[in-house]
Amino acid sequence: MKKTTFFLLAIAFLFSAKAQVQVRPLPKAGYEVRIGEFVNNMKVVDTHEHLGSPERYKKSGQLDFMMLLFHYADDDIKSAGMSKQGFEKLLTDSLTVIEKWQAIKPWWEASSNTSYNRAALLTADKLFGIKNIDETTVVELSDRIRKAYQTDWYNDVLKNKCKIEYVVVDGEDRSFGDPKMFRYVKRFGEFFFATSHKKIEVIAKQQNYEIKTLDDFESALSIAFHKAMDKDFVAVKVGIAYERSLFFEDVSKEKATAVFNKILALPNNESLQYNGSDIKPLQDYMMHRLLDLARATNTPVEFHTGLQSGDGNTIENANPAHLSNLFLKYRTVKFILFHGGYPYGGELATLAKNFRNVYIDMCWLYIISPSYSERYLHEWLETVPANKILAFGGDFLNVEGVYGHLLFARQIVSNVLIAKVRDGYFTEDEALKIAQLILHDNAIQLLKLDKQLLK
Ligand SMILES: [Zn+2]
Fold first, then answer.
1. Residue 395 Cα to ligand 1 middle (Å)
2. Which CATH fold topology does 154-453 show?
3. DSSP structure class, residue 194
4. Per the CB 3.0–4.6 Å rule, which of 1, 127, 259, 290 could disulfide with 282?
């Protein structure tokens, strides 16, 4: 290589290695440690969980090392090749701990590279003091998990170990959880999947309201909605991207009525395809009615966007860009888009940037991919106002999962803020303020979590 070529390449490398423009003075020595400590020790708000009752886990056949593998890790273990039936058996007490390990071992070894499974390893280490999950450790790990459940485990993990101030749960079970800390979101899925006469009857019974027409059906939704909001629900959750596209046309009442009447006219044992085009106009119509209710009551609406857990799902359905017509029509409804839209992070950035009523929620995201989370948190902090980013939700069925996931989240948020301070994009003070917003204050303000306490 000629000397001049080398020189030019070296210059080009120097410029490309510096990804950021420098806006602020470079930080004082020790900023990495200070930012890391701040993020690691701060109280956080957990915007999204599916926590199940600890009593139910105690009685189940999975209160052993499977507590670290039954949720999310299971997706990758099955993706690696283990059968669903084979996996289900591991959640019963029909096998000993060692037999369970032998059955899962090949699939665990094939998939332990993924971040779902790295999170399980980190949890085993940091929460239970077990450095690896293998044939020499599963018995001891299982004993430690069983012992933990003899204590006030949920409070200990969520409050003391995770330093979580509020946790927002997507679930109906109120038999556990400190009411000072637990908040809930409400789904109205039954109104979108009422594909048969019988299912409409179930809703009528639940709401104690006779349903003969589409008007009645809308009234039943309104009753259900107001009942939920009178309790301690803080937002509506929509998980429909698992079943169909997120594009909800503004269909006429006539068109929706035609579908509704078609369902009522079906014989008792028949139903419309719930994910087919037949039901879509009615679903679209009901989504608009749900958003009317959200608008009238100033209730935020959370949408599942991006990756759907488990196999056999259609990712294009869950592209958050499908929702734009709703953002435009319901300008005062706050739309919270979940899961960092994985893999639609760029689309999500433009939506949250352009629409004042669109927010980013990074729940579930760090364990899907730490590097995606880091890359997009960088990009979102460059494109989206910091008051519109919610940076942690564990999205787990159990507190062990929450703990491991939060370790990932704190690490990634630190990495991003440290890099941005190092480059002179933010000052150290600005970085700390942003951590406080995205991991704590934004969620409290957006979901009015502290006001609920006064009720
Ligand atoms: Zn979830």
1. 5
2. TIM Barrel (3.20.20)
3. -
4. 259
